[in-house]
Amino acid sequence: MSEIDAAVSPTKDFAPQNVQGNILRGYRHGKVRHLMLEVSNRDVARRFLAASADGTQKDVPRITRSADWSRDNPLETCFNIGITFAGLRALGLPAEQLATFPSEYAEGMARRAIKLGDFGQSAPENWPSPFDQPDRIHIVASIYSNDETAFDTVEVQVGRAFTILGTRNGRNLPDDKVFFGYTDSISQPRFKHVFDPDQVGVDEPKDPLGTVLLGYVTHFEGVEFAIPEPKNVFRDSAFNAFRVLQQNTDAFEAYLSKAATELEKNPRQYELLPKGAEANINGGTNRHEALREVVAAQMCGRWRNGTPYELSPNSDVLGDLSKTNYDYKFGSRCPAGSHMRRANPRGGPIVQRVANYSRRLVRRGMSYGPDPETGEHGLLGNFIGANYGAQFEAVMCDWINFGLQDPEITGTNDPLLGANEPETSVFYLTTSTEHRIRLSGFPRFVIARGGAYTMLPSLSAIRYLSGLKG
């Protein structure tokens, strides 16, 4: 019995063997390869899906289910798929059923670009191949492994059934960091009826399964997100925003130095960081370097080692406190405009109080690059939920790029992820008094380089699609 199976009794109709892996719990592999696929022969593609769901054909990778993987039974290689709306059409799903899918999914990521802040450098017309032809991307297949040879083996198997338009390789950086230097993957939703040993001791509200899976209750009493037709087939599916996000670390580090130089001349700098507190940052450093790290910590909402700024505004030493068990309060030293508070306000005060825990997203990702020729590097991210409009797009538009959750930040963008321009960017540092220190002139640090809206179909949905006729 898997760890997930062992905790499902309160929801009798929850079937982890029908849910694709990497949704309810993350894998532990250190590398990934994403394949962007086109259905060039409908019949061949359907036969591949049937064999992949069945898992008995040696030359076809088996879809990994939530019930397949546990700490005690790690799989050497995991394989999962996401299907775009164009992919459903290419596989032959009838028009009357296609019409029951959400409009955001039907339009696709490229056509929803403005909603996501993907303009300027991030605009779809600047995305490289194959993301410059979004209607040709029908499936994003993901291979997780620590064994490099597994990627090539599975890619060859997949290539017999689909046209491979492009690949993206990712890996975990040392100490679970991203290229900006922050420790990542600290806080994730934890779900009712799902035991995750990695989250033992985390004292955050448990999210209902309907937060991420179709067919279950949500945070909103009496509200379940719509399931496409036929409902019994697409239940247990999820929606995913697959994103290729370039991280401009040189610009980020340069701006931290610029901001620190300005702060050293600011008479309120000691309200931002008390004299001598630099001894408690990075194991002890000089004033300039300490101020750089304060700016980085306030922009993110965490120090780069993962310590929450909310709990420790003058030191990155956490002590016995938890990195996850905290909330935001009125007068918090963690800025309302920080990335962490924008993306997940927890139970803190926001205008849209009902939305505090309702826009939770499962985040799965690994870093990519640097490219040997261009030096480009960043994150291959998956942002998983049950409804694009109520979750991913609401977070990106309302919170990340408009700041509608708090009047103090309305009209400003997320300092790390937002669609910033030097001429208009603004961020306010908090101090130990009621005064705030205004920063401005920073560029966009994260640039979209492609992506796709996909559905992570249940195993019953994969079998249904494989059996379509015509």
TrEMBL record:
Keyword ATP-binding belongs to the record: no
GO cellular component: cytosol
MF GO annotations: heme binding; metal ion binding; peroxidase activity
Location of the DyP dimeric alpha+beta barrel domain: 18-158
Top-rank taxon, per record: Bacteria
PROSITE patterns the UniProt entry points to: DYP_PEROXIDASE
TM region(s), chain numbering: none
Obligatory cofactor(s): heme b
Keywords per UniProt: Iron, Metal-binding, Oxidoreductase, Peroxidase
Protein name according to UniProt: DyP dimeric alpha+beta barrel domain-containing protein
Species per Swiss-Prot/TrEMBL record: Ruegeria marina
